[in-house]
Structures are given as C-alpha cells and as structure tokens.
Amino acid sequence: MDIPYTVELRRDTGLNNGKIGIWLFLASEVMLFGALFASYILIRVGAPSWPRGDMFLDVPLATLNTIVLIASSVTMVMAWASLMRRRFGTFRIYMGGTILLGLVFLVVKYFEYSHHIHLGELPGTNNFLAIYFTLTGLHGLHVLGGMAVNAYFWGPGAKLWKTNPAWFTNRVEHSGLFWHFVDLVWIFLFPTLYLL
Amino acid sequence: MSDQVVGAPPAHVAHGVHHEELGFWRKYVFSTDHKVIGIQYAVTGLLFLLFGFSLMMLMRWQLAYPGVPLPLIGQLFGEARMPGGTMLPEFYNELGAMHGTIMVFLGVVPLAVGGFGNFVLPLQIGAPDMAFPKVNMASYWCLFLGGITMLGSFLVPGGAAQSGWTSYTPLAVIAGTGQTWWLVGMIFLITSSLLGAINFITTTIQLRAKGLTFMRFPFFVWAQFVTAFLLLLAFPPLEAAGVMQLMDRVAGTSFFLPSGLVVSGQPLTNTGGGNPLLWQHLFWFLAHPEVYVLILPGMGIVAEVIANNTRKPLWGYRSMVYSLVFLGFMSFIVWAHHMFMTGMGTAMAAFFQTTTMIISVPSVVILTALIISLWGGSIRYNTAMLFAVSFLPMFGIGGLTGLPLGLNISDIPLHDTYYVIAHFHYVVAPGTIFALMAGIYYWYPKATGRRMNETLGKIHWFGSLVGMNIVFMPMFIIGMAGVSRRLFDAGSAYEFAQPTMHWNVVSSWGAWGMAVFQIPFIFNFFWSLRKGEKVGDNPWQATTIEWSAPSPPPHGNFVAAPQAYRGPYEYSVPGAGKDFVAQYEA
Amino acid sequence: MRATGNPLWLAAGLVAVLSWPGVAVAASSVTGTVVFDGKAPALKPLDMAAEAVCHKKHGSKPAPNEALVLGTGNTMGNIMVWVSKGLPAGKTWPAPQTPVVLNQDGCVYKPHVMGIMVGQPYRILNSDGILHNIHTFPKINPSFNRGQPATVKEMSTTFGKPEAIFQVKCDVHPWMLAYVGVFTHPFFSVTGTDGKFTISGLDAGTYEITAWHERLGTQTASVTVSGSDKKNQDFKFALPGAGAK
Lengths: 196, 586, 245
Hints:
Low-confidence stretches of chain B: 1-18
Structural class of chain A: mainly alpha
Shape of chain B: globular
Radius of gyration of chain A: 19 Å
Shape of chain A: elongated
Oligomer: heterotrimer
C-alpha cells in the first residue's frame, strides 16, 4: 500500500504531504521559540538592570557565525537547485558544504561556550546568561538535528535518488525549509542576545 | 516551480501491489499501520486511565478517613509513604500530582486523540493510512517513553512529582527529584503530541477521499482537525516552559525564582530575578487549549453516535462546525482566567473574563445542537447511545458550573477549592470519558468485527453514571464551603471544614462503587474479542465512510478507494428505500 | 528482632574490645561542667498562639526558649561536648541499636540538642496529635523532610555519614528547633541543666574536646588520659563582647 501525494501534488490543495507537514512543524517551532523570546522579554523587563550583550558575549565571533549560517542557507538552496537540474554530483558538493558550514558554526559555538565556562560564566550566574544558554543551546540542538538530516540525505538517504528522484528532491527541499528556519532563528537570536 | 519535477507520475506505483507478510514485531509492536497504532494508543490510554483511577481511589481513602490506616493493602506502600498504613502528606501529594498528569496527558489524550484519532480519522476520510506512517509510530513510542518515565518517577528517592499537575513555580523548582523526571516525561509527551498533530492535519487535508469536501466531513473529523491545531500550537510553549524549569532545577538558573526566596528559613543561593508567574502564563497557555483537546474529540464522538442512533441528521451541522473552529481559535486567548488570584490587575482580568464569556457561546451552540438533534428522532438506546446521551447533561453541568469560575468576582472565593475539582471533572470525567466509552462501544465492531455485549454494557453505563454523580456532586458542596483542593486531610484540621467532612465519605464510596462497575467493562472488552456477536461491515447502519471498509479493516483499509457523494449524516432521507443513505454510495 | 539483636551486638562489641592488644577495658573518662559567664539575657518564651492544641498544653506557663537553658549557678544545658581529634584512625565503633528519640511534645522538640551515631536509628515521635513536618538541614547527609500527620505516632530514619551539628525544623511550627550531630564514635555528650557532661570509655591518649552551643559557637580543650583516668575539663561560655575570654 502506498500513501498518495508523497510526491505528486494533490490537485485541490496544490501541495504534497511533506510540504504541509514541514510547514506545520515549523509553525510549532515558531511557538516554541516564540515562547522563549516572550519569556526573555518578560524577564528582562522585570529586571532592575540588564547587561548589554557585549559585556559577556563575543560579538565578532557571533558575526562570523551569522555569516557562516547565511552561507550555509545559500549552499542549501544550491543543493536543492542542483537536484532540480538533475545534477547529483553538484548536489553532493553543495550539501557537503552545508553540513560543513553547520559544523563550523557548532565549533565556533563550542569555543564560545568553553570560554564562558572557563571564566565561570554559567547559566546560574545571572538571568542574562541563563536565557543566553537556553536559547543558544536549544538553537544548537536544532542545528545538530538539521545537520543529521542533511547528512542522511548526503549519505545513505541519497539512494532514493536512483529510484525516485522527484521524491528525493522534495525531501531535500523540506529539509532545506527546516534549515532556513534554523538560520532565521539565529538571525533573531544574534541581535537579541549579542547587540541589544 | 517544483511542479515540473514532482508533477511527473510516480515511478514507484507498481511496487505497491504486492504485500509481503510482516513479522510479529513489525506487525503488532513496531507497526506503522494507523489501526495498530490507534489500538496501541487506546490500550495504553485505557491502562493509564485505570492506573490514574487507582491513584485516585487511594486518595479518596485518605480524604474520607483522614489518618486512618488503609486496611489490607496499606502496608504495601512502605514506611516512607504509608507507615503502618497511614498516608503521609508527601505521598498524598505524589498521588495528586500524578493522578492529574496521568489522567490528562497519558489517559484521556492518548485515548481520545491517539486512539480514536488514529483509528477512526483515516477511515472516516477514506484514507489508506496516515500521511506519515513512520512519524505516527514515532509518536506512539514517544508517548510510551514518556509514560515509562512518569511511572519510573515513583521509584526515585523522594518519590514522584508532588507539585500538582500544574507544577507551579517556585514550589516545583525546589521540589524533589521526581519533578525532574516529570519534566523529562512531559517533554516526551509533548513531542509525541506534536508529531501526532502534524500527522492528523496533513492527513485530513491531503488524504481525504475524492468528493469529501470539508463541509462533508463527519463532525468527528472536524473535531480531531481542530484539536490537532490546538496541540500543534499550544504545546510548544509548555515545552519551552519545561525546558526553562529543567534549567532552573538542573543548571541552577532562576527563570521562575524570584529574588530573596527563603525556603524553610534558608535563603536560596540562586541569583533570583525570575518570574514565578511566567510559568503560570506559559503553562495555562497550553493547558487551556488542552481542556479543549480533552473535550473536542469527545464532542466529535458524541455527535457521531447521536446522529447514528437518532437516525436523523445532526441539527445545525454547519453552525456546529463554525462554533468548533471559533472555539479552537478562542481557546488561545482565555488562559489567564486560571490566574485571577495572581494579582495581575483588573484590566487583564476584565479582558480574560470577557473572552471566557465569549468562548462559552460556541460550546453552548454545539451542546444545544446536539440536544436538539435528539428531537423527533427514533432513538436506539444501545450502550453507545446511552453513554452519548448521558454526556450531554454531564457536560452541561460541567460547563455551566464553570461560568462562576470564569468571572473574576465569583472566582475569588471559589478559586482552588473543591468546587473547581467538581467543575472540571464534570467536564472531563462524566463528560469526555463517557464520550470515549460511547466511542469504544460504537467502533469496537469496526476494530474487531464483533460487537460488545449489550447487557454488560448497560450495567457498566448505569453504574458509571450513578457513580460519577455520587463522586462529584458532593464536591460542589465541599467547595462552596471553602475547602481547598490540595489539603491532604480534606481539611480535617480546620474548624470550618468540619460540616462538610461527611460528604467526603459519600464521594469516596461513590468512587469505589464506580470502580466495581468498571469490572463488567473490562471483562466485556476482553470477552467480546473472542465471544462477542459477529457482525458485518456496517452493524449500526451508519452513513460515514469508515463503515464501508471490512471489519476489521485490512492493511490499506479499503478494498477499493472510496468516494464521498454526499454529506455525512443522510439519515431518514424522504423517499429513500432505507432509513440511511451512506456517504460512500453513489 | 531487636530483642535478639542487642545481646548479639553486645557480645560482638565485648569480643572486639577484649581482643584489642594491651588494653583489656578502655576505662578513661572526661567529665566537666559548662557554665555561663556574665549576666544571662532574658529570652522571651515561645509564642504558640497559632497552634491551639499546643498553646493549651502549656497552660499558663508558656514553653521557654531553649536557646539558652541555665541551671543554678548559671550551669548551661544543651551543650554538645565531643571528642573532635585524637581518636585512633581506622578504628570503628559499632552503632548501638537503641534509637535516639526525638519527641514532639507541646510543639517543642525534646531533646533540643542530641548526638547520634552513623547508622543508629533515629526515632521521631509525635505526641501532640497534630500535623508536624520534620525537616533536617544537613550539608552532607540527604535532607529528611516529611510530614507527620496527627495519627502517625512514629517515624524513623538513620544518618549515613558523619556530619557537624545541623538544624532540625518543623515546617508547620516555625518556633520548633532542634540540633543533631552525627558521629562515627560514641564519645559525645549533651549537658543537662546542671551543665555536666561525661565522655567515658576512652583509651589512653591525647584528645581534643569540643564544646558547642547553638548561638555562642565552639570551644576546644586538649585532654590527655591514661589508664583509667577521670579527668575534669570545664568550659565557660559568655556573650560575645561581654569581656570574658
């Protein structure tokens, strides 16, 4: 038995299942990060004083990370576009690039974290660091999750290209949507935590 | 843009023809079939309902006879919980918190949404399976892990969570290890619900049978559809709150801890500066929609059963659907009516009591439509119908007694008393659970090919109906006397609670009596699997699409892809040869 | 169980002591009196108006504040005295099976200060017939925090690790306070109102003896004993800044 509309579009909705699924998932993610941002605002508003981000955080490193993530979004689009042009080899290169850029992001993040821990700046130190570690930690987990999915499509999942290229292209597109979302979250996080 | 590629005909269609036989584990345990998953959900939900009910029966002993050793089994709970059979307050708190958590998140939601949603929804819309079968399986196993975590928390030092099912901060942050397990368990359960919700919505939108437009949906499908949106959008804030409480407990942050907090005379070392009310906002932002998650599937089931057994169309189907959607939307902006006592200010209270009064309108529309649907019907009083009809007044009582709680002024004396317990239990216990029972009796033939025994069913219904009212009606009296809901001894230490103490005895015996009347149900449930009367595909002469599938439906559900030709409830159509015209008949 | 257990332990202890080379019976003891130096401050009695049962129980004579208990001649009660240094390393003493009892009577912990050995049963009695909540505040041992409803007359626990003196509180009645010290050895004593303490059964050697009061801190003294000495070591506490040493 096959599930209809995994690849082909349903005529009256103009969509396939995966596309709806990933957008619904992103909607719930918006609520998750929305709640955390709302909490951030509430706690900051209630605080008698609040440190500027650059008192604790390394703005140049985070700027680098922002550029890295935006670049990874570009390579992600290129990976999908290569599949649309039926160039599997270029897909592998761009997808590999996306994964590597994600890895660069996490390594930079690791140095930031270890620097904080070295200085004794832990989540319990103050509420700014608490929200910083919670938000960036959760975001980091999302990056890791996105990388795992991308790595799957780069590696074992790519077998699907041989049997059903259209489906594979769709899946890469959907994982790309998630990746762009993760990127977008960072673009909100960066000014909120580092600059404001 | 993507049409060029994905528009091409799928190359793999030919693979779908052959069915390889799956092994036992893949077929019944790690199954991706929505019916197996639905039954797994339902059985898990029923077991947890029984477990949560047992916790409650222990509590009822303590409330009826505070401080009296529990005979026979009291010694089994150990010195740390019930020395000499007498319940310690900590154990009572464990029971209270876990009863609430288990009933809501592991009992009713898995049964109503996971069980009925998974089993019935794809069948009713004529789909071969859920849109994402593997995600569906993952959803069940997340629930399973969450359930194991919750059960396991009873065994950790200090016992399970003791801060109520609401886990209010700062109390929950400074509580014992069980609370950490509760949070981890909740994160599993939330993940499960999210995966399920995505699946339900996608399935409903994409896998509808040909001709099944939204306004031809059975009401149950609409109810599940709206419920799925509530789960999808309301749960993530609680997940965020859970992560923050976990950080507070494990990493020493102070999201929910105010400055200068002193616990038992010892100042806390946390930095403080957090906001305990933030937890309540995030929690109720989930938990008010959650109330509708609990009730909407129940309404859907009742609508199906009533339409079928009155042999006439639902009265005001469209207004019911619009009310349902409006209800779903409004449920996101009423949450702070749980927080009138927090001192959030009259402007906020005025806003939330207004929205609360508004949200009662669509609920009343649906309830009224269901009651009017009975008018002039040739009603069949089978067990499913008896449960469905009892749902109406029970939910009515629950709903109407909620109005004083939704108004700021009258909420102040009633807040956190037994009145609140009585109110929401009337909605959820004789409300939702009756609806779920109706659903079990109604769809059992579809799942097994056999009908449950009617005599045992009617005994079960009668005992449950009487029992429920004996349990919960006295709580209104106790609550209006001002007895707080969280007292481990039902207030026996207080002068003002003395005149109502005997009502606790009545309520407790009602609960134990009701437990006895669940035995016929449990027996019936298993006995009918083998010995129940064999029935055909459509034993209730119903109109909706699930009855066109074989009973039990095979993998892939339908022999040929069904098609919808008309609305869902074409009963007693004038001029038709029989008293129903099925949705799937050309 | 307990009836047969006791003689067994005694026998085991006796065998252990007798087989100790060179010493048949460790017989030295240190005694002394603790006195308060200066003019004693008048402490307000405990206000139990919030708990009718206990208020009634004390009648016209309200329960005194036990932070400072003085006998005739300003002898001090509730002083914990123990051997803090000098015990042979590696030697262990079996914990007695007789429990240390903490009684909650009239919303007062009796006794106010107590020592207990690691593993020795700690029995908590509720003689009031109302809800109490026993909450210990140790730093090393796990905290014991449990409600004791009216009908639960008795609970018990043990302490797994030695620990300096910590507080026991009632979460229902904030005036209820007691202090517990957990020791690996039996060489501790709490003074009565007469201010007297006795630490006996010491082997020959030089020991550091510490005396502790809940508000006035600790004092130490060095004592050398041999054979079956009976040494005397008095302690004197004074209010800080009162001019006494």
